[in-house]
Specification:
Structural class: alpha/beta
Helix content: 40-55%
Protein name: Response regulator receiver modulated diguanylate cyclase/phosphodiesterase with PAS/PAC sensor(S)
Number of strands: 9
Radius of gyration: 19 Å
Shape: globular
Strand order of the largest sheet: 1-2-4-5-6-7-8-9
Bound molecules: ligand C2E, magnesium ion
Distance between the termini: 44 Å
Largest sheet: 8 strands, mixed, barrel
């Protein structure tokens, strides 16, 4: 059941589809059609070094463009796909698409692409091997992938995530703790796991520059991160005032509409080329 060929080639056999609980809803039916009709797109949102203005990475975000339903954002379908396990099917497509793009972008050697993986993925014992196989098949010279793990996923999946970190040494993938400071934050998560990046939740970022308590919180997050050699990205920067405030706090990287919306692969490369010239 794999699709024609080329960049969107998709392999269903990787997962036991019998374990996927397929009901009757239209969203589910639409979803399986959408995969074979190429309705999913990946957009890339640049992450900027706040001090040099250079692009350091981009976050890959998924979009669903359906001709009847219109443009659908991940928050509308990811929770549903997480419930029935279909998320693994989508994430397989996402990984293949991103690794394809990375192959095209090999000349931008330092460009790191980060991806959001669902909680489901961390329980998938074959996750690391799967990524290894995909990058091997594409003959990527180096694997410039960073996996974002939402902080709320960490607590319940420590055992699994531990084993992923053990596995990953052979493949050079980086990890980012996402949504840091959104919920129950524990500094110990930062020292227990080898995260290279953390992303400060946009609720904290968007309360700047006025909220001085949140300013102190961000400042102490950055202080801890610096001790542990972790790079801090502030998410959801929308204004110059927020950026100035983050710069004063010593935040390393930033992401948000102030710099750029998420862009198609083509527009992203245009943006990247302009930014490096
Ligand atoms: P996230 O990882 O927190 O991603 C950042 C979200 O903030 C994105 O929403 C992005 O478009 C949005 N954003 C970026 N800059 C700004 C800004 O300046 N202001 C505001 N208000 N928002 C901004 P998006 O693309 O709708 O994604 C929502 C969430 O869906 C993501 O949150 C992520 O958790 C999940 N998601 C997206 N793509 C994937 C995927 O491929 N796999 C999985 N498992 N989850 C995904
Ligand atoms: Mg959104
Ligand atoms: Mg993210």
């Amino acid at each position: 059941q794999s699709k024609k060929n080329g960049r969107d080639q998709f392999q269903f056999y990787q997962y036991d589809m019998n374990k996927v609980d397929i009901g009757k809803s239209t969203l589910e039916k639409n979803f399986l059609n959408a995969i074979s009709n190429d309705e999913f797109k990946i957009v890339y949102q640049p992450v900027i070094d706040i001090f040099t203005g250079k692009i350091v990475s981009a976050e890959a975000l998924v979009r669903w463009e359906n001709k009847d339903l219109g443009l659908i954002y991940p928050e509308k379908f990811i929770p549903f796909l997480e419930k029935n396990g279909l998320i693994l099917v989508l994430e397989q497509w996402i990984l293949e698409t991103i690794i394809n793009d990375l192959k095209f972008w090999e000349r931008y050697e330092d460009l790191l692409i980060s991806i959001n993986l669902s909680e489901y993925q961390f329980k998938n014992a074959k996750m690391v091997k799967n990524i290894k196989d995909l990058t091997g098949k594409k003959q990527l010279r180096q694997c410039n992938l960073c996996i974002e793990i939402k902080e709320e996923y960490l607590e319940e999946n420590k055992k699994f995530i531990d084993s992923i970190f053990n596995d990953i040494n052979s493949i050079n993938i980086e990890f980012c703790l996402d949504n840091f400071g959104a919920g129950l934050t524990s500094i110990s998560n930062l020292s227990k796991f080898p995260f290279k990046h953390l992303k400060i939740d946009q609720s904290l970022v968007q309360s700047l520059p006025r909220n001085s308590q949140n300013k102190n919180i961000i400042e102490s997050i950055i202080a801890v991160a610096n001790i542990l050699n972790i790079k801090v990205t502030a998410k959801g920067i929308e204004s110059k005032a927020q950026l100035d405030s983050l710069r004063a706090l010593g935040c390393h990287y930033g992401q948000g509409y102030f710099f750029s919306q998420p862009l198609s692969a083509l527009n992203f490369i245009t943006y990247l080329t302009k930014n490096t010239n």
